[in-house]
Amino acid sequence: MADATHAAADGGVATILASADGRDFLLRNSADKVKISSIKASTVALYFSASWCPPCRRFTPKLIEAYNELVSQGKSFEVVFVSGDSDQDAFNAYFAKMPWLAVPFSDSEALAKLNERYKVMGIPHLVILDAKSGEIYTEDGVELVHEYGTEAYPFTTERINELKEQEKAAKDNQTIHSLFGTPTRDYLITNKGDKVPISDLEGKYVGLCFVVNGYGPVVQFTSVLAKIYEKLKAVGEKFEVVMVSLDGDEESFNESFADMPWLAIPQGDKMCEKLARYFELSGLPMLVLIGPDGKTLNDDIADIIDEHGPDAWEAFPFSAEKLEILAEKAKAKAESQTLESLLVTGDLDFVLGKDGAKVPVSELVGKTVLLYFSAKWCPPCRAFLPKLVNEYNKIKEKHNDFEIVFISSDREQSSYDEFFSGMPWLALPLGDERKQQLSKIFKITGIPSLVAIGPDGKTVTKDAKTPLVAHGADAFPFTEEKLQELEKEKEKKINDMAKGWPEKLKHDLHDHELVLTRCTTYGCDGCDEMGDSWSYRCKECDFDLHPKCALEEKGDVEMGEENAEAAPAGYVCEGDVCRKV
Description:
The protein is of the alpha+beta class. The chain contains 19 helices and 28 strands.
């Protein structure tokens, strides 16, 4: 909340919104002029926004909904659009959707002064004022509309504190009815549209599952949760799940709910957003566990299910004691891990060869196997593949007891086929159910990833990519002992590399003396390429030169150097990895 003392109160909004050249009106989207003095609202919100801004375009419909609801309730409230658009046409098109007033786009001086007055550093930005005094109620209007909607009116500090007290009291006195019901709705629905009384949930454990249609991590999570749900139902446990949809349209809601065996809060019900705020939703998937008394037992058990998969049902109702037992079972399972326990599920006891032939997993037993998680759509994966193919061929020349299995995250068979065609190794079929389980076992959060499995079927390392990039085929068989040996050899080579180089030198590209410095990766300020191991550095100026650049006048210098390797929804590609959001 902003301190009201820093708000100018000279004449209230009449003075704040008028211009120095005498403009005393605002506009409606019909182009009608409205005298500022005629504004009767006691609370006025200044909405800094622009059509080119995606977050603004997402927030504007929510503000329109809140505005219309407050007006229909007879609340004394007005909004004034302060545009950040780049031209009149963009302003007109954006303003045409808004039911409130606006500062004329032509009055660029007034727009600039309002931005300066309220120190607007980003949009959307909603400053809410006392219309009479000009006092700032809050500069956090966007957050308050998101969190509380119309309940935040008139957006004063007192009102927000009151809402927070109500939320605290609601948590202290939480019941299954206060969580899921409203004054006008005492039921939940099935995916067939049947109404189920909330009272049917009394005395049960209830999982509150937040859902967004089509979001990969949620789709994968709910498919596992469905198996747990059915298992708990089969053994007679009193357990129910309630879907809390965060989708904004009925089609998305119906699509995500269609295959779910549990209940849901009806689409568009404001209780969904309220629950997201109530449980401080910060990421998906999220599953809140409610006890038989209606109190919250665990704010989020999604990680437990992610870690243990369908076996997580054995820890129900997820008490500390049950989780400890499950962890011990998981540890024992890991210790007894074999290649077949990883790659064989029911009738799926094979991988694919280059000609599409089924290769029995039993033929891989006793070999060092790399599980290669990758996808054609991933730029870092495409950049890494030639390196991996080259090192694979080098290893195979010396070691026949070695293989790679491609585990694809592609969506289309054509993409899978094209990418796999450039690989000389084996693969799981596209969409194979083993891919999801392997991703969970090895906690794959980004691609490309390489997991090394030893001849005994035990995990050698969950990150074979790093040593393979650093040492190439010499990293085989990726054991800790081998990597330590390579690191010692590398360290010796690095130290030998610098023998004969001056400890300090001067260079025409920099005024200060440069000192030979041991380092990791850096960008050379001479050739703009990446370097590692050694740099001629000025720490004061954060200036680096490759030794070959620093010493070029004295003859070429050989040195080790590596260049940095140059999505669908739910992934972000950064540097040499594409990660799940």
